[in-house]
Amino acid sequence: MSKITVIGAGNVGATIANDLMIQGIASEIVLIDVNKQKAFGEALDIYQGAPFCSPAIVRSGDYPAAAGSDIVVITSGLPRKAGQSRLDLAQANVNIIKDIAPQIVKHAPNAIYIIVSNPVDILTYVFHKISGVPENHIIGSGTILDTSRLQSTLAKRFRISPKNVHAHVYGEHGDSSFVPWSLVHIANNHIDSYRDSSPDKEKIEWNQDYAEVEEFVKTSGAQVIKNKGATFYAVAMSVCHLCKCALNTAGTALTVSTMMHGEYGVSDVCLSTLALVDRSGVRGKILNHLTDGEIDKLRHSADCLRAVIDQIEI
Predict the structure, then answer these.
(1) 256 contacts 140 by C-beta, under 8 angstroms
(2) What is the mean pLDDT of residues 129-155?
(3) Do 246 and 278 touch, CB atoms closer than 8 A?
(4) What is the pTM of this model?
(5) How confident is the model at residue 87 (pLDDT cuts 50, 70, 90)?
(6) Would you say residue 183 has pLDDT above 80?
(7) Which is the catalytic residue, given 173, 190, 241, 300?
(8) Three-state SS at 74
């Protein structure tokens, strides 16, 4: 049975812990927060639903309570406000990660670390540089949520299950992200030819609306924040899926943020491409063939992140 520690008991962290409980992903869930009263209350509230779920222990605690964790999920940090870019948050949340890392790694040195706090690519990079944790055990949640937003909106357009939509968002979890459209397939057809194969061809409207779809994906988070103040349901579901994949022996292809070592001409920066995730953490990257234009976009995204890394104090 698995033990998962969630650091940060705000909206995202508490919802992740609740979803872990509901889905039966972990047999023990530990919530850690600087606000110990909040962490205790969230853990108690979640645990009192235990009779309706798979048996699990849910409790709050300090860093020593994380000992023996299979996975540690880090959600701590200042939230993004309406109109604020993820990268505006950088230094404040870098400082928080720098405070957390040595304390948690001391007690859970063998865990797989999933970084969720924003700007996630920057914080994943910083965690690589300061934690001493093996590289394959560090996973940024990256663009898994962006990818889910992409797949769900394409599924609606093409009147098909999201499970039949193979489309991913690459690059930064932010403004410079992009969709490698050359790789997008729906039910084994490239997206631009699917309509001709579909029984719903008369009802499907698709005129290679790449820019429109990408704009929707990029602005979805801001739309949610504008309307309800924060995003946490979908991100929690995406992180729980990532946890399941990291507890599985079969590798799952996910757009997680990992350290680049020359792939596509990108080095010493963390961003999202497809990688295989399993019990070993990041088993390795899937080096799909990208067009020259897509490689340029990935390098541009890396340059945007590098510009931020050069400005922060690690």
Answers:
(1) yes
(2) 97
(3) yes
(4) 0.95
(5) low
(6) yes
(7) 173
(8) strand
Determine whether 173 is an active site residue: yes
Nearest to 177 by CA among 222, 119, 217, 225: 217
Sheet holding 281-285, edge to edge: 57-60, 28-32, 3-7, 71-74, 112-115, 138-140, 252-261, 267-278, 281-285
Residue 71 has pLDDT above 90, yes or no: yes
Contacts of 206 (CB under 8 A, 6+ apart): 157, 158, 191, 192, 194, 195
Alpha carbon distances (Å) from 24 to 68, 226, 279, 295: 18, 32, 17, 39
pLDDT tens-digit map of 189-217: 999 999 999 999 899 989 899 999 999 99
Looking at 30-34, 94-98, 203-207, 290-294, which range is the least confident one? 203-207
CB 46 within 8 A of CB 21: yes
Helices vs strands, H then E, count in the chain? 9, 12
Dihedral pair phi/psi, residue 6, rounded to 5°:
-115, 120
Q: Which of 117, 86, 45 is nearest to 308 (CA)?
A: 86
**Single-letter residue type at 175:** D
Q: How far apart are the first and last CA of the chain?
A: 36
Q: Flag whether pLDDT at 37 surpasses 80.
A: yes
